[in-house]
Amino acid sequence: MQMPQPNASVIALKDQLAARLRSVMPADAVITDIAETRAYECDGLSAYRCPPLLAVLPASTQEVSDILRICHDMGVPVVPRGSGTSLAGGAMPTADSVILGVARLNAVLETDYADRIIRVQTGRTNLSVTGAVEAEGFFYAPDPSSQLACAIAGNIAMNSGGAHCLKYGVTTNNLLGVTMVMMDGTVVEIGGGHLDAPGLDLLGVICGSEGQLGVVTEATLRILHKPEGARPMLIGFDSNAVAGACVSDIIKAGVLPVAIEFMDRPCIVACEAFAKAGYPDCEALLIIEVEGSDAEIDHQLALIGEIAARHNPVEVREARDADQAARIWLGRKSAFGAMGQINDYMCLDGTIPVTELPHVLDRIRQMSAEYGLDVANVFHAGDGNMHPLILYNANLPGDLERCEEFGAAILKLCVEVGGCLTGEHGVGIEKRDLMHVQFNAADLDAQMAVKDVFDPGWLLNPAKVFPLDASESHRAA
Amino acid sequence: MMPTSEDELSGMIRDASGPISVQGGGTRGVFADGQALSTAGLNGITLYEPGALTLVARAGTPLSEIESSLAAEGQRLAFEPTDMRALLSTSGAPTIGGIVATNASGPRRIQVGACRDHLLGVRFVDGAGNIVKNGGRVMKNVTGYDLVKLLAGAHGTLGVMTEVSLKVLPLPQAVATLSIPDLDAAQAVAAMSAALGSPYDVTGAAWADGAAIVRLEGFSDSVAYRADRLAEELMQFGAVTIGDVDWSAVRDARAFAGLPGDVWRVSIRPSAMPAMVSAIRADGDVQVMADWGGGLLWVLCAAGRDLRTSITSGHATRVRGDASAAIARFHPEPAAVAALSRGLRQRFDPRGILNAGVMG
Fold first, then answer.
1. Looking at the domain covering A230-336, what would its CATH class be?
2. Residue B323: beta bridge partners?
3. B267–A196 CB contact, under 8 Å
4. Residues B117 and B232 in one domain
5. Quick one: how far is CA A202 from the chain centroid?
6. What are the protein's UniProt keywords (chain A) (predicted)?
């Protein structure tokens, strides 16, 4: 992974910078000790590491503003960090940058059930947002699988999704307003408790900008009342293609499940060995969850069962109660852990048009043989967001590189069939150099124009998202 | 000017010597000074995959053509695009490009989101003639910055869209509307908030002619069940009847069509709506109705009145009124936000020729 040469003159400013930062925030919130800064050297993409120049842990929007103003004055790059769960290297530091961690900003500022909104500081974890409102029967819909740990700040930066976004949308569809600090320290309020923008939809471009336009310190989020109930159904098939066709037919029939999860044989086998969920012995299985009252759930599951029956399923298993539901979800929810038990793996995140599923799965199987690396597929089938897990051996020289090449080939295939490089994990450093595959120079320039307007010095979260050759002239301007 | 291809459009913009007024169907009262550029030549559905819930169409495609193609497969644009012709006394056929450029979203905004939430990708030509694509045609896509949202609602000031790709959804089997008559603003918001805070998946909540109306959609048995349950919960606010209501009249604020005066849309938190209605009434005669559970207020007031002087939160857009008056269409933004908007317009349209002045 090529990164720009760290700026030695910035690194030389470390003591001076630390002194200025300590003049605006408590001493313990400025971390300069090399052993302690190591805690911030990587995120969920742990193959790549680099300790930052120093780390700061602000406790208020004012402190964030002071930090950014000082760094802006001194020309020091800043890498914002939520909980550090990014799988794309979105929060990976550079040697000449300050890590700005929002973990101390974790308060709930306002909850309004009549207006169905909650306003939180963005260091708060995703799951604890739901935790703050569930006693009243409400929840915050986006549910990335890291929701126990990941912060709202990171969710906004990466526009995080989750298993239930087929019905409820992703972060951008549930975000109503932000307090954001610009790189020069200016605090802006965008959006609020209302539903649309008075001018350009700045909120829409801030969400998913990977922390490169500003540091979001507070967010107004839409909350929803929980459905009366939810239950899954498991359907096994004797081929990926048939399972894919069944997904398409369900959607065409007008049923809109809240989740449709897909697992292929390698994934089923690994999960079965790990979690012993009692999954059928088959080539592909779908877990489909619907919501509503008991009668509504019965009706929808019956419809789905009828559609599935036309595709000669190997097995159809409908959850009758909470215990059976938990068993159906058990294997799926332990998929990543199961794969981790048997191997090192790289998790991809490309999205494809749902109609291309069978073709893409076939191609991945062929490529798996060509590269000599196994792949297990588990993904959100309703929206085409794939998560191929490529298995490799980190201790075998050259295996990681081969795995990365294979991964890149799969992502190129996703783009080729009309999809994209990343559905919910973000570009970060991981997919930065593949951006040319999906976008031409004019496409990238238009995106970088936004960066130029929000952060003219290109100091926020440097060397991410845009290929270095494409961004060079913008960074130098 | 009426380009028939993206390349031709790119050349026209690159070679333009003065301002350009971008026109879709011309039904939404958005007119800039300058040479008219019609998207009518960029026409047709280019891809429709019912099984993937996606439709791609060129910007000048009439909405009616898209809606009939979708209806044939039992699907629809779930964000309920508004039709402003009656309210604004305009004629012509609304285009999908015009809908996206104005982010025209109806009552279902509160449940499924706005037009911008259903927009998966755009192709556009910026003010320098560059052809740009962003997003794509898949439901989940975080590859690069989301210019799709930025283009939605930009009223043609950042670029001229040539193609849009949209998420579509199934048509429901059944619809039912619960009505509670004779409610004031505070009672109506309370009733609508109770409905929207229930587990019954409300797809519309409006207040018109003093009645709160609440819509449910889905499979027949499910709608019947939820209507009964919700009616029980809403009885505390008044007598509840269950029946059919023409939601397109709510969507298009048709009650104000043909009546004299200016029309405004005020976007607020629902809980702030009753006090705002009182403040607006205290400053002059008005008619009001609300959509989005009270979060969107439609106001008919005397011509030339600056409604913003009565408003202390949210924002107000004047959708009908004398264009030569000093009142801006859009609510002024705080200085720091306005600077960002201005900066973006300068970067995407360096000569300031696309729908100049339409957004400030």
1. alpha beta
2. none
3. yes
4. no
5. 21
6. FAD, Flavoprotein, Oxidoreductase
Spatial separation of the C-alpha atoms in residues A72 and A82, rounded to whole Å: 21
CATH for B197: 3.30.70.920
Positive/negative CA dihedral, A190, A196, A197, A198? negative
Yes or no: domain A108-225 corresponds to CATH 3.30.200.20? no
| B164 within 8 A of B135, measured Cβ to Cβ | no
CATH number for the segment(s) A343-416: 3.30.70.2740
Integer Cα distance of A61 and A67 in angstroms: 10
CB A375 within 8 A of CB A417: no
Last residue of a domain, one of B223, B251, B279: B251
> Which tokens in the block code for residue A436?
């040319």
**What is the ipTM, given to two decimal places?**
0.97
At residue B263, the 3 state secondary structure works out as strand
Q: Which two tokens stand for residue A44?
A: 């969920």
| Structural domains in chain B (count) | 2
- Please provide residue A93's backbone torsions phi and psi, each rounded to the nearest 5 degrees: -75, 170
Stated pTM of the model: 0.97
- Cα first-last separation, chain A: 24
**CA distance to partner chain A, nearest, from residue B105 (Å):** 10
Spatial neighbors of A278 by CB under 8 A, at least 6 apart, are A272, A327
pLDDT digits (tens, 9 = 90+) for A314-371: 999 998 888 999 999 888 878 777 777 778 889 999 999 988 988 999 999 999 999 9
- Which chain B residues have a beta carbon less than 8 Å from that of A351? 138-141
**Between A and B, how many CB-CB pairs are < 8 A?**
266
Dig out the tokens for A285 from the structure. 């299985």
User: pLDDT tens digits for A9-51?
Assistant: 999 999 999 999 999 999 999 999 999 999 999 999 888 899 9
Q: Which of A469, A475, A348, A468 is nearest to A412 (CA)?
A: A348
What's A6's DSSP letter? P
Q: What is the pLDDT of residues B1-60, one digit of tens each?
A: 999 999 999 999 999 999 999 999 999 998 899 999 999 999 999 999 998 999 999 999
